[in-house]
Write a structure and sequence with these properties.
FAD/NAD(P)-binding domain, alpha/beta, homodimer, 32% helix
């Protein structure tokens, strides 16, 4: 059964572009389509754009959630013939040119799939059930709650083994997110927790970074990986490379080499897969990404584009596709927004060309690694300043810049991470102790121990 | 069955003071007990102090949640023999001097009940089920989500009656919270929503303030109530005084005079009752508040104190108890913290004396009302500046001050409320449309309409 309700978007003579996803890619398509004679519809399951590069700071109490989220409607408030709809795309019908949502089917003349990536657990059901992903603001807040909750519980447990388990955190995936969150947790452990939890022996707190490949930051230079490993080790992070995760039952993380780690907190950043949906044919995809031609169009559906993390455009220079970074999504979004009028008019357009801006990862205060174009690899304080500048500068709204700047300025001088509040306790379904705490905080359900 | 586990708090020779609640009252007891020879245990169900006077700004997208929450452990990080425990008190045993929590029973030498107030629905089960309270950060975020969600749904509904229902908000209770939230919603409607929702006819948006007594702000002067009513009416708020609420089925709010209001969003601020728990005997209470002597002690349990909203100290000047305002809690907390050593030593102490600092309520940009001591009643821009200054100044941490100041500065110059993000969709259990949206945003449960 298919509803024909059109999300209250008027049918006009203008060609309609439906963009799925308000990440870096989607926003840039919208921005560059302005005033070009299209009706533009943007769909997202959130009413805000998430600045993903700083999610890890929300998770580690460095930033308020609102500092890295910008309301989508705000971005395009003076944009005629633009429609935002709070809808998740649940399917596409490439033959009839329809995007399917819970609110009904939406006809399009052109569609841009820019839904980004979601965690890839590689079919490991246990990891999917018990490990925590961190691709959205609520997930980052969940991780923040989990880290703080387990420390609160460690404070009152009488069982030393349980305490160690509660005080252990395993980060699976040694890419930028894993490295950045490890560094932030190390700083939390060093500068904040000793004062917050004077009763806890923090030497028992273990933060482990687990990577299947032989080194950290495999997407970056050897130099960056080695520097990150050295810095993190100095900060007290246990680094396990060549370490494949086999399973996790919610308490014991098992590695392929037979070793185990007892922990209630496992973050999973070890893989992503495109945020696809039914209607895309298997032949159009490879490893969860959508194959495109050099013009960002789907190989067999020329009215549909795919950009950013979800797209796989194989070029001579990038035979495995472009790096899964914000600049790729931004540049592809700009490309589609800029050239769609010509494509629509049947004019020839140049192929997409990726401009490598290098990559950065921060490790901690005054510590970052940078791979800049021209094989310029370096780390340390200068890389950190570049990282700070690039991130403040890339934030979408002035309000975000202001909040992030104020928060960072405060943290820089105080060594404090002031957002360590458990807004909503995180409860894994199997986790009775936490569920108990959640229940205890809901007045109706409290019971007297009298 | 009673657990004997003591939340891992060591038994020492020092007398132990257990404080229930980290609101204005509880924090001030802790602060003033420092270095006075007591072991101090603070219990709260949140790991942060909530600055309640600004909750309404979190709800109306004026402030990030983190701006008005300060981590409790942070406040007392250099405080020897102080213990914070993330526990809700679920009972008290005044005979054996025990506070009961989900984590076990805790012995005390002195106990200070400072749990504040929770919404009082006066036994109206329908209101309790369907109306939204706003006493905590998650509840404020729920209201923010609800207001934004209903507007998103109004955008796509084809049914005009449904659209009007989605665009109506009823605020029950004409006290400071009701007035402040009405003003903030009116500004949202005027300055932000027209740009955000160009497709909605915002003249259909109704914001109603419903008060059972004959005027707004019944706790303040006649002058303040009249001024607030005049300002709010000019801002487009519908004010219903002498209007008693009879019931609400989740869609239709019924008043005693037979009139009805169709709305999915009913905020309830029409009454509070002390956040009490089993073990307090009915004879010790009156109208949900705990009777105390002039020294903040329970009438029949001299080792137990009650302060703030939960306390009812009848004096000649305040025969019905002191006003339910932050200054009462702060002053009682300071009083107990300051004089407990003398009380413990058997020395005479002066009775608690309330210093009336007046009261303030803001209505909108440049609009507030003030009742200052000495029957000084005025409104307008000066009252608003005083309000701003008092609130920034009262925030507990420098970090909170910085975030609030930066946010207000931004809003002042841009007329923007930048935090209008739905972090987690709010779902009332009976509300299928919202539940559907929530489900639609959870990847596992999405279904194809194909």
């Amino acid at each position: 059964m298919e509803k024909t309700f059109s999300l209250d978007i008027p049918d006009t003579a203008k060609p309609r572009v439906v963009i799925i996803g308000a990440g870096f890619g989607g926003l840039n398509v919208v921005k560059h389509l302005k005033g070009k004679g299209f009706q533009v519809v943007l769909l997202d399951k959130h009413n805000y754009h998430t600045f993903q590069p700083l999610l890890y700071q929300v998770a580690t109490a460095g930033l308020p959630a609102e500092a890295i989220a910008s309301p989508i409607r705000q971005q395009f408030k003076h944009y005629p013939d633009f429609y935002f709809r709070l809808q998740k795309a649940v399917g596409i019908d490439p033959e009839r040119n329809l995007v399917l949502t819970a609110g009904g089917a939406l006809r399009f003349d052109y569609c841009v799939i820019a839904g980004g990536a979601r965690p890839n657990f590689f079919g490991n059901g246990q990891m999917e059930k018990y490990a925590m992903p961190m691709k959205s603001v609520p997930e980052a807040l969940d991780l923040r709650s989990q880290v703080l909750q387990t420390l609160e519980r460690a404070t009152v447990t009488a069982d030393p083994g349980e305490r160690r388990t509660l005080m252990s955190i395993a980060l699976v995936g040694g890419g930028p997110t894993g490295v950045e969150i490890a560094g932030a947790l190390a700083e939390l452990k060093r500068h904040v927790l000793p004062k917050d939890f004077p009763g806890l022996d923090l030497r028992q707190m273990r933060i482990m970074l687990v990577e299947a490949l032989p080194r950290l930051l495999p997407q970056m230079s050897e130099n960056a990986g080695a520097r990150a490993a050295k810095d993190l080790q100095r900060m007290g992070i246990e680094i396990h490379v060549n370490a494949m995760v086999e399973g996790y039952d919610g308490r014991t993380l098992r590695l392929k080499d037979g070793s185990t780690i007892d922990t209630y907190t496992v973050l999973w950043t070890a893989g992503v897969i495109g945020e696809t949906f039914p209607g895309l044919q298997p032949a159009w995809m490879e490893k969860g990404r959508i194959l495109t031609d050099p013009f960002c169009r789907l190989l067999f559906a020329r009215k549909i584009f795919a950009i950013g993390d979800i797209a796989l455009m194989k070029t001579t220079q990038y035979p495995k596709g472009h790096p899964g970074l914000a600049p790729t999504a931004i540049q592809m979004g700009r490309y589609v927004g800029k050239h769609l009028p010509e494509i629509h008019g049947g004019k020839p357009v140049p192929a997409f060309k990726y401009l490598d801006k290098g990559s950065l990862a921060t490790i901690g205060r005054g510590k970052a690694v940078a791979d800049l174009p021209g094989k310029l690899h370096f780390g340390g304080r200068i890389a950190w300043w570049i990282w700070l500048f690039v991130h403040i500068n890339s934030l979408v709204s002035f309000r975000n810049k202001l909040l992030v700047f104020a928060s960072w300025l405060y943290s820089y001088f105080t060594f404090d991470k002031g957002n360590r509040i458990i807004i909503r306790p995180f409860a894994r379904k199997d986790d009775e102790a936490t569920a108990e705490m959640v229940r205890a905080n809901v007045p109706e359900e409290t019971q007297v121990v009298h």
